[in-house]
Amino acid sequence: MDGTLLSSIAAAERIWGAWARRHNLDVASFLPTIHGVKTVDTIRRLALPGVDAEFEAANITRAELDDLDGIEAIAGAAAFLRSLPEDRWSIVTSATRDLASRRLGAAGLPVPAVMVTAEEVERGKPAPDGFLLAAKRLGFPAADCLVFEDAAAGIAAAEASGASVIVITAAHPQPTPTRHIEVAGYETLMARTTATGSLQLWSL
Questions:
Q1: Of 98, 102, 163, the residue nearest 129 (C-alpha)
Q2: Would you tell me the crossing angle of helices 53-66 and 97-107 to the nearest 10 degrees?
Q3: Would you give per-residue pLDDT tens digits along the chain (204 residues)?
Q4: What is the CATH number of the domain that holds 49?
Q5: Domains identified in the chain, total number
Q6: Which domain holds residue 204?
């Protein structure tokens, strides 16, 4: 979701930047590590002495719920989602359900019928669990799914699930090097259902 359907990087980096400064971290080197990963996992990975990761993650999430300034859809995302049957797409996000819903609303994008959020998987990205769960709920093997991702952790998770991957680069000035197809946004993409019921991705 973040970085793939909408850009909330400015809001996330405002909140995480303030948190990093309070904990005497180097903000410039720390901020690139937050993308695509569950908040609590980011904090745990730092292993800061005396820091309660669950408590800090809850505080960060509350701050993110209140800061929706600058959140906007990736170019063409709304039209692309409209080209998909409602029961054939999902969001797999490291955000909580409340935060995901708030950010989608701020960006003017729909909440899908199937959404896998941070609370629903024990192992977040780069583990494939979220994508595997979403594929199961959609009723397809992950190998038959196409994942749109932007961050290294999400790309690794999608690869581990067996899904195909397209990398969206719009939200990152310096995208992660990858072997996958890269597109800036969705302005030239649309999906259509074939006579056999499969989905085809078209470049306009």
A1: 163
A2: 20
A3: 999 999 998 899 999 999 999 999 999 999 989 988 999 999 999 999 999 999 999 999 999 999 999 999 999 999 999 999 999 999 999 999 999 999 999 999 999 999 999 999 999 999 999 999 999 999 999 999 999 999 999 999 999 999 999 999 998 776 667 889 999 999 999 999 999 989 999 887
A4: 3.40.50.1000
A5: 1
A6: 1-204
